[in-house]
Amino acid sequence: MANLGDMRTCYNNRTNLLIEDELPFKCPYAIFDKWLTEAKEDKRIIEPNSMCVATATKSGIPSARYILCKGYDKTGFIFFTHYTSRKGQELEENPNAALTFYWPPIHRSIRVEGKVEKLSSEIADEYFKTRPYDSQIGALCSDQSKPIEGRHVLFEREIELKQKYGEGQVPRPEQWGGYKVIPKCIEFWQGQSDRIHDRIRFRKVTCDDNELDGKVLHKGADDWFYERLAP
Protein backbone atom coordinates (compact mmCIF):
# COMPACT_ATOMS: atom_id res chain seq x y z
CA MET A 1 0.00 0.00 0.00
CA ALA A 2 1.31 3.47 -0.93
CA ASN A 3 1.82 5.58 2.19
CA LEU A 4 0.69 9.17 1.67
CA GLY A 5 0.71 10.09 5.34
CA ASP A 6 3.63 12.50 4.98
CA MET A 7 1.95 14.58 2.27
CA ARG A 8 0.93 17.86 3.91
CA THR A 9 0.18 21.35 2.68
CA CYS A 10 0.31 24.58 4.64
CA TYR A 11 -2.90 26.60 4.60
CA ASN A 12 -3.66 29.77 6.59
CA ASN A 13 -1.87 30.54 9.86
CA ARG A 14 -4.79 32.03 11.81
CA THR A 15 -4.20 35.48 10.37
CA ASN A 16 -7.16 34.82 8.07
CA LEU A 17 -10.06 33.37 10.05
CA LEU A 18 -13.73 32.89 9.31
CA ILE A 19 -15.51 34.17 12.43
CA GLU A 20 -19.26 34.10 12.95
CA ASP A 21 -19.52 37.69 14.21
CA GLU A 22 -17.30 38.94 11.39
CA LEU A 23 -19.01 37.35 8.38
CA PRO A 24 -19.10 39.87 5.52
CA PHE A 25 -22.72 38.92 4.82
CA LYS A 26 -25.42 36.92 6.55
CA CYS A 27 -26.65 35.54 3.22
CA PRO A 28 -24.78 32.49 1.83
CA TYR A 29 -25.24 33.59 -1.77
CA ALA A 30 -23.53 36.92 -1.05
CA ILE A 31 -20.58 35.12 0.56
CA PHE A 32 -20.44 32.69 -2.37
CA ASP A 33 -20.37 35.62 -4.78
CA LYS A 34 -17.52 37.27 -2.84
CA TRP A 35 -15.45 34.10 -2.68
CA LEU A 36 -16.03 33.27 -6.35
CA THR A 37 -15.03 36.80 -7.35
CA GLU A 38 -11.78 36.43 -5.40
CA ALA A 39 -11.18 33.04 -7.04
CA LYS A 40 -11.77 34.52 -10.51
CA GLU A 41 -9.25 37.27 -9.79
CA ASP A 42 -6.57 34.78 -8.75
CA LYS A 43 -4.56 33.89 -11.88
CA ARG A 44 -3.48 30.60 -10.33
CA ILE A 45 -7.04 29.28 -10.56
CA ILE A 46 -7.78 28.15 -14.11
CA GLU A 47 -11.51 27.37 -13.90
CA PRO A 48 -12.98 28.97 -10.77
CA ASN A 49 -16.47 27.81 -11.74
CA SER A 50 -15.42 24.16 -11.79
CA MET A 51 -17.39 22.05 -9.34
CA CYS A 52 -17.78 18.42 -8.39
CA VAL A 53 -21.37 17.23 -8.83
CA ALA A 54 -22.37 14.18 -6.80
CA THR A 55 -25.55 12.28 -7.58
CA ALA A 56 -26.95 8.93 -6.49
CA THR A 57 -29.26 6.23 -7.73
CA LYS A 58 -32.62 5.61 -6.12
CA SER A 59 -30.96 2.90 -4.04
CA GLY A 60 -28.24 5.29 -2.86
CA ILE A 61 -25.23 4.26 -4.98
CA PRO A 62 -23.24 7.50 -5.50
CA SER A 63 -21.23 8.87 -8.40
CA ALA A 64 -19.34 12.14 -8.83
CA ARG A 65 -17.69 14.15 -11.58
CA TYR A 66 -16.37 17.66 -12.29
CA ILE A 67 -18.35 20.00 -14.51
CA LEU A 68 -18.75 23.78 -14.83
CA CYS A 69 -21.28 25.91 -13.00
CA LYS A 70 -22.95 28.11 -15.61
CA GLY A 71 -24.97 30.43 -13.42
CA TYR A 72 -26.30 31.12 -9.93
CA ASP A 73 -28.61 33.44 -8.06
CA LYS A 74 -30.61 33.37 -4.82
CA THR A 75 -32.61 30.42 -6.10
CA GLY A 76 -29.74 28.05 -6.86
CA PHE A 77 -26.83 26.87 -9.01
CA ILE A 78 -27.11 25.95 -12.70
CA PHE A 79 -25.30 23.43 -14.89
CA PHE A 80 -25.96 21.81 -18.28
CA THR A 81 -25.49 18.23 -19.40
CA HIS A 82 -27.10 15.36 -21.28
CA TYR A 83 -30.29 14.02 -19.73
CA THR A 84 -29.17 10.56 -20.87
CA SER A 85 -25.80 10.76 -19.09
CA ARG A 86 -25.21 8.86 -15.87
CA LYS A 87 -25.85 11.96 -13.76
CA GLY A 88 -28.92 12.80 -15.79
CA GLN A 89 -30.36 9.32 -15.33
CA GLU A 90 -29.60 9.37 -11.61
CA LEU A 91 -31.22 12.80 -11.20
CA GLU A 92 -34.30 11.47 -12.98
CA GLU A 93 -34.84 8.83 -10.30
CA ASN A 94 -33.29 10.69 -7.36
CA PRO A 95 -33.50 14.51 -7.74
CA ASN A 96 -30.94 15.32 -5.05
CA ALA A 97 -27.35 16.44 -5.57
CA ALA A 98 -24.29 17.79 -3.79
CA LEU A 99 -21.85 20.31 -5.27
CA THR A 100 -18.30 21.05 -4.15
CA PHE A 101 -16.21 24.01 -5.27
CA TYR A 102 -12.52 23.84 -4.28
CA TRP A 103 -9.89 26.52 -4.85
CA PRO A 104 -6.53 25.17 -3.50
CA PRO A 105 -4.45 28.38 -3.99
CA ILE A 106 -6.73 30.34 -1.64
CA HIS A 107 -7.46 27.38 0.68
CA ARG A 108 -11.23 27.59 0.34
CA SER A 109 -14.05 25.23 -0.51
CA ILE A 110 -17.83 25.53 -0.69
CA ARG A 111 -20.28 22.64 -0.38
CA VAL A 112 -23.89 22.79 -1.54
CA GLU A 113 -26.63 20.21 -0.98
CA GLY A 114 -30.16 20.38 -2.25
CA LYS A 115 -33.00 19.39 -4.52
CA VAL A 116 -32.56 19.49 -8.29
CA GLU A 117 -35.01 20.84 -10.85
CA LYS A 118 -34.76 20.47 -14.62
CA LEU A 119 -34.67 23.81 -16.42
CA SER A 120 -37.09 24.67 -19.22
CA SER A 121 -36.27 23.94 -22.84
CA GLU A 122 -36.40 27.71 -23.49
CA ILE A 123 -33.56 28.30 -21.01
CA ALA A 124 -31.58 25.41 -22.49
CA ASP A 125 -32.08 26.79 -26.02
CA GLU A 126 -30.97 30.25 -24.96
CA TYR A 127 -27.77 29.00 -23.33
CA PHE A 128 -26.97 26.52 -26.11
CA LYS A 129 -26.93 29.37 -28.65
CA THR A 130 -24.15 31.08 -26.66
CA ARG A 131 -21.84 28.05 -26.73
CA PRO A 132 -18.86 27.97 -29.14
CA TYR A 133 -19.54 26.18 -32.42
CA ASP A 134 -17.23 23.25 -31.59
CA SER A 135 -18.93 22.80 -28.21
CA GLN A 136 -22.33 22.72 -29.90
CA ILE A 137 -21.12 20.06 -32.32
CA GLY A 138 -19.56 18.14 -29.42
CA ALA A 139 -22.86 18.04 -27.55
CA LEU A 140 -24.67 16.86 -30.66
CA CYS A 141 -22.21 14.10 -31.58
CA SER A 142 -22.05 12.61 -28.07
CA ASP A 143 -24.46 10.19 -26.45
CA GLN A 144 -22.85 10.94 -23.11
CA SER A 145 -21.78 8.06 -20.83
CA LYS A 146 -22.64 5.40 -23.41
CA PRO A 147 -19.94 2.89 -24.46
CA ILE A 148 -18.53 3.34 -27.98
CA GLU A 149 -16.05 1.39 -30.11
CA GLY A 150 -13.36 4.06 -30.07
CA ARG A 151 -12.58 7.77 -30.44
CA HIS A 152 -12.80 7.44 -34.22
CA VAL A 153 -16.57 7.13 -33.82
CA LEU A 154 -16.67 10.66 -32.38
CA PHE A 155 -14.32 12.01 -35.07
CA GLU A 156 -16.48 10.56 -37.84
CA ARG A 157 -19.65 11.91 -36.26
CA GLU A 158 -18.04 15.34 -35.81
CA ILE A 159 -17.07 15.54 -39.50
CA GLU A 160 -20.56 14.45 -40.53
CA LEU A 161 -22.25 17.07 -38.34
CA LYS A 162 -19.93 19.90 -39.43
CA GLN A 163 -20.77 19.11 -43.04
CA LYS A 164 -24.46 19.24 -42.17
CA TYR A 165 -24.51 22.31 -39.89
CA GLY A 166 -22.62 25.56 -40.25
CA GLU A 167 -21.99 28.06 -37.47
CA GLY A 168 -25.26 29.38 -36.05
CA GLN A 169 -27.19 26.39 -37.44
CA VAL A 170 -26.51 23.67 -34.85
CA PRO A 171 -29.75 22.57 -33.13
CA ARG A 172 -29.77 21.83 -29.42
CA PRO A 173 -29.95 18.06 -28.89
CA GLU A 174 -33.29 17.07 -27.33
CA GLN A 175 -31.40 15.02 -24.74
CA TRP A 176 -29.27 18.00 -23.64
CA GLY A 177 -30.41 20.64 -21.15
CA GLY A 178 -29.99 22.31 -17.80
CA TYR A 179 -30.51 21.67 -14.10
CA LYS A 180 -30.71 23.91 -11.07
CA VAL A 181 -29.60 22.77 -7.61
CA ILE A 182 -31.82 24.48 -5.04
CA PRO A 183 -29.83 24.47 -1.78
CA LYS A 184 -31.05 23.41 1.61
CA CYS A 185 -27.56 23.94 3.03
CA ILE A 186 -24.37 25.73 1.94
CA GLU A 187 -21.11 25.23 3.83
CA PHE A 188 -18.03 27.45 3.65
CA TRP A 189 -14.66 25.85 4.44
CA GLN A 190 -11.37 27.67 4.91
CA GLY A 191 -8.19 25.71 5.57
CA GLN A 192 -5.89 26.34 8.53
CA SER A 193 -2.39 24.82 8.76
CA ASP A 194 -3.04 23.41 12.24
CA ARG A 195 -6.00 21.51 10.73
CA ILE A 196 -8.43 23.39 12.99
CA HIS A 197 -10.22 24.47 9.84
CA ASP A 198 -13.02 27.02 9.63
CA ARG A 199 -16.42 25.59 8.73
CA ILE A 200 -19.54 27.76 8.65
CA ARG A 201 -22.76 26.11 7.49
CA PHE A 202 -25.90 27.91 6.38
CA ARG A 203 -29.08 25.85 6.41
CA LYS A 204 -32.80 26.23 6.28
CA VAL A 205 -34.57 24.98 9.39
CA THR A 206 -37.71 25.46 11.41
CA CYS A 207 -36.35 26.70 14.71
CA ASP A 208 -37.92 26.82 18.12
CA ASP A 209 -36.68 29.14 20.86
CA ASN A 210 -34.44 26.46 22.35
CA GLU A 211 -32.63 25.68 19.10
CA LEU A 212 -32.08 29.29 18.03
CA ASP A 213 -29.99 30.33 21.03
CA GLY A 214 -27.63 32.78 19.31
CA LYS A 215 -24.67 30.81 20.65
CA VAL A 216 -24.59 27.79 18.35
CA LEU A 217 -27.31 28.54 15.81
CA HIS A 218 -27.67 32.09 14.54
CA LYS A 219 -30.30 33.84 12.44
CA GLY A 220 -29.00 34.88 9.03
CA ALA A 221 -30.57 36.82 6.19
CA ASP A 222 -33.90 35.82 4.66
CA ASP A 223 -34.81 32.33 5.91
CA TRP A 224 -31.23 31.13 6.45
CA PHE A 225 -29.61 30.12 9.75
CA TYR A 226 -25.90 29.54 10.26
CA GLU A 227 -23.62 27.69 12.66
CA ARG A 228 -19.98 26.69 13.08
CA LEU A 229 -19.06 23.04 12.58
CA ALA A 230 -16.14 21.28 14.22
CA PRO A 231 -13.35 20.62 11.67
Give an account of the 3D structure.
This protein has 231 residues and is an alpha+beta fold. The chain has five helices and ten strands; from the N terminus they run H-E-E-E-E-H-E-E-H-H-H-E-E-E-E. Strands 1, 2, 3, 4, 5, 6, 7, 8, 9 and 10 form a ten-stranded antiparallel sheet that branches. A hairpin with a 5-residue loop joins strand 1 and strand 2 (62-68). Helix 4 (133-141) crosses helix 5 (151-164). The radius of gyration is 21 Å and the shape is globular. The model has no long low-confidence stretch (mean pLDDT 91).
State the secondary-structure class. Answer: alpha+beta
Distance between the termini: 27 Å
Q: Give the helix tally.
A: 5
Oligomer: single chain
Question: What is the residue-mean pLDDT, rounded to a whole number?
Answer: 91
| Largest β sheet strand count, sense and barrel closure | 10 strands, antiparallel
Could you state the order of secondary-structure elements as H and E?
Answer: HEEEEHEEHHHEEEE
Q: Tell me the radius of gyration.
A: 21 Å
Strand content: 25-35%
Query: How many DSSP-defined strands?
Result: 10
Low-pLDDT residue spans: none
Shape: globular
Bin the helical content: 10-25%
